[in-house]
Task: structure prediction
Amino acid sequence: MYKQTFNANIENINLRKDTIDLDIKEIKYKIDKNKEEVSKALVKLEDKTKSMKDLKNNEVKTNNDLNLLLNKCNNIEKQIQNSKYSINDYKSKLNIYVEMENHYEGFNKGVKEVLKNKNLQGIQGALGQIIEVPSKFEKSIEAALGAYMQNIITNDEASAKFAINYLKKNNLGRVTFLPMNIIKSNKIDTRNIKVGTSFIGLASDLIKFDDKYRNIIENILGRTIIIDNIDNAIKFAKENNHKFKVVTLDGEILNPGGSLTGGSLRVSGNILSRKRLINEYREKIELLKVEIDKLYIEKKETDSNINITRENLKQISMDITNLDKEFIIENAEVNKFKEEIKSLKVSVDKLENEKDGLGSNLEYILEKSKLIKKDILSIDTKHDENKSQIEILTNELKEYSSLYEDDKLKFDNLNLNLVKHNQIYESIIRDIQRISKESKALEDKYLQIEKSLNDKAIETSKLEEDIVIEETEKISLNKQLIDNTRSLETKKLSKESLKEKLESLNKELKNIDRQYIDLKESLFKVEGKIDRLKSNKEDHINNLYEKYEITLDQAIQMKDDSLDVDKRYLENMRREIRNLGNVNLDSIKEYEHIKERHDFYSEQKKDLEQSIEVIEKLIYELEENMKKEFEINFNKINENFKFVYKRLFGGGHGELKILDKNNILESDIEITAQPPGKKMKNLNLLSGGEKALTAISILFSIILAKPTPFCILDEIEAPLDDANIFRFGEFLKELSKDTQFISVTHRRGTMEAADYIYGVTMQEKAISKVLSLKLKEAEEIVDII
Result:
C-alpha cells in the first residue's frame, strides 16, 4: 500500500515535472512572441514620435502664420481708420472752400450782390472765377491782376449798364464791368522782345480759361511778363527800357516807366486757389475711398485666411490629441507586453525552482491584464471629458469675440466723432483770434490814413497862402516899376530944358538906372519864384489827386484854420510817411471790403459767443448733475465700504470722507480705517496687508454700488495672510452671483474659492500649453477614488 502510494507520488512528481517542462517551453515561446510584439510596438512608437514632432512643428508654424495674419489684419484696420480720418479732414476743408466759393468770399460787396442776383442777364462771372491758375503762378497772377480780379465780365455794355443801375438803385457800391463785345486783345508778340535775360512767359499764356474770354484776358494780362525773381526782373526791365509790366513769382511788380511794387502780399480770400484746392481735395477723397475699398478687400481675404488657418490649427490640435491618445495606448500595450515578459520570466524561474512544488502564476498574469484594461478605459473617459470641455470653451470664445468686435466698432465711431468735434472747435477758436487781429490792424490803418489826409490839406493851404503873398508882392513891384519908368520918361523930355541941371541930375540918373537894374533883377527873381510856386502848386494838386483822389476845391473845403501845426513835427511826420513807402491807392476799397468781412465775422463772432454761453450753461448744468450723482453714489459706496470692511477684516470700522464739501468734484477723499482691536488710523499708518485689504474693500464697495458684468483681478490678494485670504475668497464667491471674475493668483485659498482653474505649462521649450480644471468635477473624481 505504501509502495503503491510512493510510486504514485513518484509518478505524480514525474508527471508534474513533465508538465512543468512543457509549461516552461510554452512560456519561453510566449516570451519570444511578446518580445517580437514589443519590437513592433517600439517601431510604431518611434514613428508616432516623429509624427508628433512634425505635428507640433506644424502647429508652431501655423500659430506663427496666424499671428502674422492677425497683425496684418490689425494693420489694415489701422490703415482704414487713418484713411477715414484723412477723408473727414479733407471733407471739412472741402466744405469750407465750397462754402467760400458759394458765398463769393473774397469779393467786394457790389461784386457779391451782382453775382448772387441771377435775374441780371449777360453776367458771365468775376475775372477771378473764370481762370484756372497753376499753384506755381498763383502769387504772380494775383499780383498782376490786383483789383482786376474783382471785375465782372458781361456779354455787352447793355448788360453792364443794367447791372450798374441795379447797384445804384440799391446803393450796393461800385463795380468795374468788362463787356466782351468791346474789349479787344492787347497781347504783345514775345518774338519781338529782344533781351538777354530769360523769362517764363506772358501771364495770359500761363493760365487756363475758356476761349471766349481770350480778348479780355489778353487785354489785361497780354502785356505782363512773368519772371522768376526780382533781380532778373530788374535786368529784364532795363533791357527793354521799362516798356512792359514785369511780375516775379513772389509777386513783386515792375511797372512800365520804372516804378516798383513789392513787400508782403496779402491773399484776397483764396479766389484763385479755391477751385484748384476744391478739385485737389475731391481727388484726394476719391483716391482714399478707392484705397479704403482695396483695404476692405484685402481685409476680407485676410479674414478668410485667418479662418482657414484657425481651422487648420484646430485640425492639427485634434490630430495631436488623437496621436497622444494612440501614443498612450501604444505605451500601454508595450508596458503590458513588458509586464507579461517579466511575469513569464518570473514564472519560468518559479517553475524551474519549484519543479517539486505546485502552483501557477497564471492568475497573477490575468489580474495584471485586467488592471491594464481598466487603465485604458479610464484614459478614454478622461479624453472624452477633455474634448467636451474644449468644445464648451470654444463656443464661449466665439461669443466673447463677437462682443469684442461690437464694442470695438462703437469705440471707433465715438472716437471719430470726438476728433471731428475737436477739429471744429479748434477751427472756430483760430477764426475768432484771426478776425480780432485783422479788425485791430484795419482800425489802426484807417486812423493813419485819416491823419495823413489832414496833414496834406494843411500843407496845401499853407502853399496857397504863400502864393497869395508872392502875387501881392509882384503887383507892388510892377506898380513901382511903372512909376519909375514914367519918371524916367518925364526927365528925358525935360532934358533939353534942364541941360544946366545935367551935371546935378546925372548923378540922380545913375542912381535911378541902378535902381532900375535892381528892380529888374528883383522882378526876374519874383517871376521865377512865381513860376516855381505855380509848378509846386500843380505838383501838389497832382499829388492830392494821385495820393488821395481829391481836388484842390475839396482839399480847401477840408481845410481847418483852427489847427495849429508844428512844422518840425510835420516834417518828421512826412519823413515817417516816406519811410512807410508807397500809399496803397486801393486802401479805401480794401477798407470797404475788409469792413464788410469784419461785419460778417463780427456777426459770426457774436453767434459763437452766444454758442459759448449756451455751452457754458450746459457745462454748468452737467457739473451740477455730476455733483448730485457723485454725492449719491459716493454715499452708497461709503455705506458699502463700512459693510465690506467689517466682513473682510472680521470687525473694525472703515469710512470714506470728502475733505472739501464745497468742491466735491475736485476734492481729495480721505480713507479712514480702524482694524479690529486697534485705534482709528489714517491709511498711511496701516501695514502693507491692511492697506491691500482696505483697497480691496473699496473695490468691492464700488462693485456692490454698481455691479459690472466682468472683472479681472491681478494678484490683488498677494499681500494677505491665510485668514484674510479665506474671507476674501468667501466674499468673492458672493459677488460672483452678479459679476463674473477672472483672478490671476498664486494663492491656494483663492484657487479653492474658484469654479474653474486654468494653468499654463511648458512641456517643451517655447511651447506653452493651457490646462483647465473644473473644481466640482475634480472633487467628484477625488471622492470616487
Summary: The first strand starts at residue 123 and ends at 126. DSSP finds 17 helices and 17 strands in the chain. The CA atoms of residues 452 and 577 lie 8 Å apart. The chain has a mean pLDDT of 76.
